[in-house]
Design brief:
single chain, 5 strands, five-stranded mixed sheet, 34% helix, Ribosomal Protein S5, domain 2, alpha+beta, 4 helices, 128 residues
Length: 128
């Protein structure tokens, strides 16, 4: 089996995934998954598509991820892994789509407007 290369995005995070058959190791930015994502919740988010298909331990995954925070990066990796599994076998798509792993979450941070403190928050009003 050749290496499958896919991309996933979430907020400002971009994850590039290289999936090949192997023993089940997941390396993120040349670090072990547990080292890069110390939170158990984020590790679970990354592994969700593999666990949903009962393929845990069948693939070696190498990930390059940058931008955003830990949660956005974990969800970008999840999308990229889901896309790689669908590219590997098209019959995986209905299962992953039903779980919601194939949808790119379009929500982004709203830009700051002039005359405001944040995107919508106004400066404090003083009557006197």
């Amino acid at each position: 089996m050749e290496i499958i290369n896919t991309i996933g995005r979430r907020k400002t995070s971009v994850a590039r995934v290289y999936l090949q058959s192997g023993k089940g190791t997941i390396n993120v930015n040349d670090k072990e998954l547990a080292t890069y994502f110390p939170s158990e919740i984020l590790q679970t988010i990354v592994k969700q598509p593999i666990v949903a298909l009962d393929q845990d331990g069948n693939f070696d995954i190498k990930v390059n991820v940058d931008g955003g925070g830990p949660k956005g990066q974990a969800e970008a990796v999840r999308l990229a892994i889901s896309r790689a599994l669908v590219e590997l076998d098209g019959e995986n798509k209905p299962t992953l789509k039903k779980e919601g792993f194939m949808t790119r979450d379009p929500r982004m941070v709203e830009r700051k407007k002039y005359g405001r403190r944040k995107a919508r928050r106004r400066f404090q009003f003083s009557k006197r």
